[in-house]
Amino acid sequence: MNSLKKRLDQAVEECHNLTDERVLEISRELDMYVLQFQKNVWSKKCNREVLQ
Fold this sequence. Notes:
- The chain is built from 2 helices and no strands.
- The protein is mainly alpha-helical.
- The longest helix has 31 residues, at 21-51.
- The protein is rod-shaped, with a radius of gyration of 16 Å.
- The model has no long low-confidence stretch (mean pLDDT 92).
């Protein structure tokens, strides 16, 4: 995720446009990773609560 964040920052800096297709593509990819991370965290939390 950190690598994608850096790529996103660089693309925004180069394009100077948040709606540039390259910026949006990287942003979408980063969103997928963030959502997956959140699902994993939520799943682990739910599993711990069930075990208790």
